[in-house]
């Protein structure tokens, strides 16, 4: 059957929504295998398409011919054509499970939640499965029916408590933690999942993120360290440990040790160098002063590996500002805003620097943008469009 997004993609979205972490485009540790196919097939696929199309046209009452062509188009991410032929196949064989499921998923991915919901309800009435409940939960979620989505995710996990179904339920509750009871239940189900699947990195990461969302920072960092230790060669948990590392100074030596090991495993990885630099910069009371030359070199290496890594540009700007290298700092903060124009902390730093260097017009421009961002965030939060504001999001990114 046509596949849904993996659990790791879902947890990445959860982090950005719930604990206000940056987007994961900078964390390209691995290629995303299984992405949607091209809408312009090569010569070999064109021949396959011609053959399948000719067979479907010659045999309009042949279920298999219509179904194979529909699946071919879905694999090529050509949803309208795929839906057309899967609908024909379903008319010929309404009981076929795979066709019905893939048609539901195609409706969902083409933003037709009404048809997706109707299709899934019809199938569940005939024969309920956890897989159908899980997909219906996604349809409800996309439709904005969050309580209905929670109910369906719970039903899927109840019918079949697999690692994936428990993760889907708990991560959904975490994503919508502002609903009464959702955060408490997210913690309950992540704990249950970790107990049932103690070697699951994604469930352990989810538990750590939930503890963070509850403000239990030391517990969150301990849990994320445990996720890293499940497989120190797996780069994915480091994304989360690196992001939350600065909230637990007591655990910074343990965090730093893991991040140092990560840099040794992935010496040319941008985020690896960036997070190790930040961990070196953050020094609990009593530790020696950090070697800023080493930190600068790590940040530059992170930028060389990922030129669009705006956080690394921002941190390098902060380093230069602390060293009173104002032109260099201004350059890095402006590059940060080129990559992320709404990054309020960079606007604030530029406001200070331009004020200090007597460039009043430029300082006033950034002050005006800061006020506009604050106003837009307040309006969006009041309207319920976002779970928090931009400033809150950026507060989590780095403390400097």
Describe the protein's architecture and organization.
The protein is mainly alpha-helical and 400 residues long. Among the domains are: 1-15 and 41-127, Serine Threonine Protein Phosphatase 5, Tetratricopeptide repeat (Alpha Horseshoe), CATH 1.25.40.10; 140-214, Serine Threonine Protein Phosphatase 5, Tetratricopeptide repeat (Alpha Horseshoe), CATH 1.25.40.10; 327-400, no CATH class. Helices cover 71% and strands 0% of the residues. The protein is built from 21 helices and no strands. The chain has helices at residues 7-18, 43-58, 63-75, 79-92, 97-109, 113-126, 130-143, 146-159, 163-175, 182-196, 201-213, 217-230, 236-244, 252-265, 270-281, 292-305, 310-322, 326-339, 344-356, 360-383, 390-395. Helix 4 (79-92) packs antiparallel against helix 5 (97-109), helix 5 packs parallel to helix 7 and helix 9 runs antiparallel to helix 10. The model is unreliable at 6-37 and 386-400 (pLDDT under 50).
Q: Could you give a quick summary of the protein structure above?
A:
With 400 residues, the protein is mostly helical.
| CATH class annotation of one domain | Mainly Alpha
How far apart are the termini? 48 Å
Rounded average pLDDT: 85
Q: Could you name the ranges where pLDDT drops below 50 across 5 or more consecutive residues?
A: 6-37, 386-400
Q: Given the structure, what is the number of helices?
A: 21
The main sheet comes to: none
